[in-house]
From TrEMBL:
Disordered: annotated span: 1-37
PROSITE patterns: DH_1 (PS00741), DH_2 (PS50010)
Protein name: Dbl homology domain-containing protein
One Pfam family cited in the UniProt record for this chain: RhoGEF
CDD domains membership: RhoGEF
Record organism: Rhizophagus clarus
Membrane in keyword set: no
SMART domains in alphabetical order: RhoGEF
Gene Ontology cellular component list: cytoplasm
InterPro entries on file: DBL_dom_sf (IPR035899), DH_dom (IPR000219), Endocytic_GEF_Adapter (IPR051480), GDS_CDC24_CS (IPR001331)
Biased composition (Low complexity): 21-32
């Protein structure tokens, strides 16, 4: 019986609380209604970003009409949603969760998708800057301080170059993020254009080439330091335990620029798909996509050229008998290393390169001297070398002895052509 009476008392107190709460809500709603009439005349603070510049919002009749229809409702829900976005940005990950439902209902599916893409670009740019800043504050700065303490360099060459690139990325992407933030604030809730901002900074992506070139070697150097537990490795392991690192190692954060570089073309392509050809931002978006594709293609070509040169240099160290001939030169591309019995695709396409296969070793009485299974062709875009596999490195890469004479730099030098199979050491299907 006492339990039942206690329950009744709670019920009665709850009713009183509900009445008082309802009265407070009515008063609060009245206050919000007064604020709502001027809510679109003020800037809305969107979390994530900092104000650095002012940009006047562009005019678009379609968006203005959708916005005006929402303003006529004079609903406080837009302000309420903005406050929710203000306090809990992690929960709301899409644009439509942060604006008035009436506004969303008045937009076409294409424009709604465009606003979501714009929101994602701005939000992910902030997250990218946040991760770069974490690398700078929790790894690069402490490592520099440790080097000053030890009075010597503890960071390997390639890792140091990657750190330098990340410091530069942080500097320039903070500027981009701030510009995007200011545009979002001035045009909130409907962002009309950001392509002009990104177009003015598209040249920045050329600076990603050195990062991509040294990234793989930097990871190897970092893993080696952690494995050996040297000064750098111990410091990195200590910093990785910080709660701010979110239980992710430094190697994961070093991958962020590469991931961001891959994501930009996808975001801009989606933005272009959602932009009306008659829209305000269409021309700038087309120019942005074209320019971005050109810059990224150039970055990719720089990376490919560097990787090819490294492969040629590494192959040179595994070939005996090259003499003064240099395999690693500009504009030469290593196509493949393959057994000679498989045939040369390069020679089929360019028969003139057969002159580079002139054998320079003397005939031998040993029939197993040049066993077919040990003969390899080293194919480049301008030369094909014939070599005998004599062993392997610690990493398992073949070691060769050169059998063919590299072509002379003198174009007019006569080429000696051997006609006997035992002289040439390799067979071709005519």
């Amino acid at each position: 019986m006492p339990l039942l009476s206690t329950i009744r008392r709670r019920d009665s107190s709850q009713k009183k609380n509900q009445i008082s709460t309802h009265q407070e809500q009515q008063q609060h709603t009245t206050t919000q209604d007064k604020m709502a009439t001027s809510s679109f005349k003020k800037k809305f603070h969107v979390p994530f970003f900092h104000n650095t510049a002012k940009t006047a919002p562009a005019k678009d009749s379609t968006l203005q009409s959708a916005l005006a229809s929402t303003q006529k409702k004079n609903s406080p829900s837009l302000r309420r949603r903005t406050i929710v976005h203000h306090t809990d940005c992690r929960r709301n990950t899409i644009w439509s969760d942060n604006v008035d439902e009436e506004l969303v209902a008045n937009l076409s599916p294409r424009e709604l998708n465009r606003q979501e893409v714009l929101y994602e670009i701005i939000k992910t740019e902030h997250e990218y800057v946040r991760d770069l800043r974490l690398i700078e504050e929790y790894f690069i700065t402490p490592i520099k301080q440790a080097e000053e303490t030890y009075r010597k360099h503890i960071v390997p060459e390639n890792l140091n170059k990657v750190f330098n690139s990340i410091s530069y990325f942080l500097f320039i992407h903070e500027v981009i993020s701030n510009c995007l933030n200011e545009r979002q604030e001035n045009q909130f809730p409907l962002v009309r254009s950001i392509s002009d901002i990104l177009l003015s900074y598209v040249w920045v992506f050329r600076a990603y080439a050195p990062y991509l070139i040294h990234y793989e070697e930097a990871l190897r150097e970092l893993d080696e330091s952690i494995r050996k537990k040297d000064k750098l490795g111990r410091l990195v392991r200590k910093q990785q335990k910080s709660p701010s690192c979110r239980n992710m190692p430094l190697t994961t954060y070093l991958l962020k620029p590469f991931q961001r570089l891959l994501k930009y073309p996808l975001l801009i392509t989606n933005l272009l798909k959602g932009t009306d050809k008659e829209g305000f931002d269409y021309d700038n978006t087309v120019s942005l996509k074209t320019k971005l594709d050109e810059v990224l293609a150039d970055v990719e070509e720089q990376k490919r050229t560097h990787d090819n040169m490294e492969r040629l240099r590494e192959l040179e160290t595994r070939i005996q008998g090259l003499g003064p001939f240099r395999l690693a030169i500009n504009n030469r591309q290593l196509l493949r290393e393959s057994p000679a019995c498989q045939g040369s695709i390069t020679l089929k396409k360019q028969p003139s390169l057969r002159k580079s296969l002139t054998v320079m070793s003397l005939p031998t009485s040993n029939p197993k001297r040049h066993s077919v299974r040990n003969l390899y062709t080293l194919e480049c875009n301008d030369i094909v070398l014939l070599a005998e596999r004599t062993g392997a490195t610690k990493d398992g890469h073949p070691v060769y002895k050169l059998l063919s004479r590299p072509p002379s730099p003198i174009d007019d030098e006569p080429i000696l052509i051997h006609t006997k199979p035992e002289d040439s050491g390799v067979y071709y299907d005519e």
